[in-house]
Amino acid sequence: MANHVLLNNLDHQDLKIITDKSEKYGNNIMYSVVYPFEFKQLQADYPIFFHKDTASNSYTALALLGFEENENLFLRNEQWHASYIPLMIEREPFLIGQQSRVENGETVENTVIHLDLDNPRVSKEQGTDIFLPQGGNSEYINRISATLKAIHESKLSTKLFMDTLTELDLFESFNLDIQLSNGSNNRLSGFYTINEDKLMNLKGNELEKLNKSGLLKLIYMVIASHENINALIKLKDTLTASDKEQLSA
Question: What's the number of domains the chain is made of?
């Protein structure tokens, strides 16, 4: 169970964070939530898809890391093998929170950093210092703070992207069947992608609006990221064959 507390340099002066990427720290995940402002970096390594919350009819962007539950094909030998790691993974075990205070008789909401004390990355013996010995912020926590701020400030632009694609009816569900060389099969389902036919058939003024807003570029980054599916399948095929050879050895 999570134990979120407000980070401060009095109670947490001696805490460190283990930044290693490993299964024991929860990095064996099939996908990660990502944000449109990350698409440029993400498209180099990961297929980008979407999840739909049917209750709210809203969408969330995801970077695909594997084809099965608890599978991260980028995590091998305690190392993350990609040029970019999604920020929702990099920020762990921190998250952003809201704190209310009264200024000039008005209640103001400020963003603050929370820490999950029960996260296995939190340690007193090993890892990267959160605070400097004299009490100031370490370079590490300053970087985490910037990461959390970027995620928080992207809330409106993310909503604009998702709402616009919803209004234009560009999301579509899909299934992907994957057959490995050993004959095993996997089916990727429950995700959404962008309907390229509907995109190509948008009216001129709709495309112009998308282009001027910068959303069209993001859409094409998502589409371009799908080229990574074949590379991910080949990687799974290779790793599956390697595991089989080790078992038979």
Answer: 1
